Amino acid sequence: MQLQVPFEVLIRRQIARLLYPNVQSARFNYVELIKMSHRCMANERQRFPVLKKRMDDVIGNFLRDGLQPSETMIGHIVEMEMDYINTSHPNFIGGSKAVEMAIQQVKSSKISTTIQKQKDAAELEKAPQSKRGSKSSSFLCRQGN
Hints:
6 helices, elongated, 145 residues
């Protein structure tokens, strides 16, 4: 259980970093909805300037009134995610298990690299002498040009 404390501290920091981009996204949505309302039936609304102004005011107030509760809700959701880090989930890999898996991955990558090098060396030895010579001479010709 003690190994999870540093993980939870790091995760909470990362989750807290999600607050600003999500609030910013809500504000972008607000601005885009305002723009859409201005473009909606623009030609028809031009004929009635008072109605156009009143519609813009009502739509703007409606969207503005919804923006603050949306930002508050986003803040609450981020706080809820920070409050409960589910380390008991079956897909969660704890500290010691994560270290063990990382060591296994490093070992397997070293083994696969060693095997590949051995295969390359064996193929080079199996190649006829004439092929090896032709490859090197063609390489030399390219350098000369």
